[in-house]
Amino acid sequence: MNAQLRHLPQIQAVLEMDEAEALSVKYSLQEVTEAVRQQIAFARSEILSGQRDTDLVLDPAFFENIEAAVLASRKAHLQTVINATGIVIHTNLGRARLAPEALEAIHRVGAAYSNLEYDPDTGNRSSRQGHVEDLICRLTGAEAALVLNNCAAAVLTSLMCLAAGRTVLASRGELVEIGGAFRMPDVIAASGASLKEIGATNKTRLTDYAEAIDDDTGVILKSHTSNYRLTGFTAAPAREDLIKLAEAHDLVFLEDLGSGALIDLSDHGLPDEPVVRDVIAAGAHAVMFSGDKLLGGPQAGIIAGKKSIVTQIARHPAARAMRIDKLNLAALEVTLRLYLPPHDPKSAIPALEALTTPAKTLRMRAEQLKTQLEGADSLHVDIVETIAQMGGGTLPGQDIPSYALSLQSERLTATQIAKSLRSGTPAIIGRIQKDSVLLDMRTLSEDEAKILGMLIPQRVAQ
Ligand SMILES: *Cc1c(COP(=O)(O)O)cnc(C)c1O
C-alpha cells in the first residue's frame, strides 16, 4: 500500500503533461488543476481503503476522466429530479411545483423592470404588499395581510413585534418541531419573548390558560401540530374560547397554521388541515402559514388577520429584513388568482391537482407505463396499491390512496435499482419497500410518466 501511495503522481507533474496543457487551453488551468487534484485524492482514498491495488496510470482514460470532471463542474448544481416518492409537498425535493401561470409571472417580472414598489397612476412610491394583500383578504376573509420570506419568518417576526419582553402562553401539547432548526420553544426565545408552558402534554384546559395570565402576558399562541397527533386521553380548549379569553385580557391570539389550506381538502384524505378562512372567522387576531405547502405556490410566509395587528407587524424592522422577494411575489400573486373564477384550484394548481387526482386515474397511468416497460430486459414490473402523503410536515396518517410501479430485477438488488434510477439527470427518486423499488404515480406529471418509460430501461435494464 505504501508503495502505491508513493507512486501517486504529483499534481504539478500531471499539469506539465501535454494532455493536461491541451485541456488547460480548452478549459482553464484552474478547472483542470482542481479536477487533477480530485482524481489523485480519489485514488489515494481508494488505496487507503483497500479498494485499489494497481498504480494510477496517466493514460488517455485518465485525461478523459479529467475532461468529464471539468464538464460536470460547469453544470448547474441545482437540477430538477423526478419525484416518484408519493410525497406531494416533499421538503427535500423543493416542495410545491408551480403552475405554468406562476412560472410565466416569474419570467415576465424577472426579465424586466416592474411596478414592484411604484404606482404608475400617481407616479409615487407604493408597497410591494399591495400586489397580494387584497387577494389574500378575499381568499381568507382577513382585514389585512403581509407576506414575508417563509412561515418561519412570519412566526418569528410576529412574535418579535407583539411579544418581545413579554410572555407567550403556549400549550405543552403544541410545542412543535417542524424539522431541524424550527422548534417552537426556540423560536419564542429567539423573538425575545419568554414561553410559559400551559397544561400537560396530553391535556390542556381553558382554566390552565386563564390561571397563567398575569401582567407580563402578551400573546396566546396556538400552533398547528401538523406532523403529529395526540390521541387517547386528551383535551384542548376550543379555539373560540381561547380567543374570548385573549380578548377579555387584552391579549393577542396568534395561530401558526403551517401548511395553511385555502380550501377544504377533507374529502381528499386531509381531514386535519384547518382552513385559513375558518380560523380567521373564529376571530384569530393573526394567523401565519406557508406559501409553498398546501397553498401550492412559491416559498412565502403569509400573515393574515386584523388590520391593527398586521399593520403593527409590517412596521417592525424584522418584517423589512424578511420581506418576500419580487420573483416569489410575482408567482404568489398569480397562484392566488388561480383560486378565483374562472379557475378551479384543484386542477389549476399542481400541488392540489396531485393531491386530488382520483386513484383510478393513477392506476391507468401505472398501466400505461407498465405496457411501455414490457420487454425491458431482466426487469419485473408490477402495479401495487400504495398510500401517498401530502408531506411538508403533515401527518403521515392522513392517507391518500395511490398506485405505484413496483420494480424488481434479475440482476440488481432493490438498493442497486434505486441507485441506478438516481444516477443521471433528471435523477428518479423512488422508495424501497422490501425487495422492490416503488415509483408512486401520485407525484408524477403526465410528461414525467412518459419520460420514465424511456429512462427506466436505460438505467436499470441495459
Ligand atoms: C412548515 C411549518 C412552519 C415553517 O414554514 P416554512 O414556510 O417552511 O418556513 C411553521 N409552522 C408550522 C406549523 C409548519 O407546519
Briefly summarize what is shown.
With 462 residues, the chain is α/β, with parallel strands linked by helices. It contains 20 helices and 18 strands. Strand 11 (252-258), helix 12 (276-281) and strand 12 form a beta-alpha-beta unit.
Average pLDDT over all residues: 94
Beta strand %: 15-25%
Protein structure class: alpha/beta
Query: Which stretches are low in confidence, meaning pLDDT under 50 for 5 or more residues running?
Result: none
* Number of extended strands: 18
Number of helices: 20
Helix content: 40-55%
Q: How far apart, in Å, are the first and last alpha carbons?
A: 35 Å
Q: Strand arrangement, largest sheet?
A: 5-13-12-11-10-6-9
The gyration radius over C-alpha positions equals: 27 Å
Q: Which molecules are bound besides the chains?
A: pyridoxal-5'-phosphate
Biggest sheet, open or closed, and with what strands and sense?
Answer: 7 strands, mixed
Instruction: Estimate the global geometry from the Cα principal axes.
Output: globular
Description:
The protein has 462 residues and is of the alpha/beta class. Helices cover 42% and strands 19% of the residues. It is built from 20 helices and 18 strands. It has helices at residues 2-7, 11-15, 18-26, 29-48, 60-74, 100-111, 133-140, 151-163, 184-190, 206-212, 239-248, 276-281, 307-314, 317-321, 326-337, 345-348, 350-356, 359-372, 414-422, 446-460, and strands at residues 81-83, 87-89, 118-119, 124-125, 144-148, 167-171, 177-179, 182-183, 194-198, 217-223, 252-258, 286-290, 301-305, 379-391, 400-409, 427-429, 431-433, 436-440. The strands form 5 sheets. A 7-stranded mixed beta sheet has the order 5-13-12-11-10-6-9, sandwiched between helices. Strand 17 (431-433) and strand 18 (436-440) form a beta hairpin. Helix 4 packs across helix 5. Pyridoxal-5'-phosphate binds next to helix 8 and strand 11.
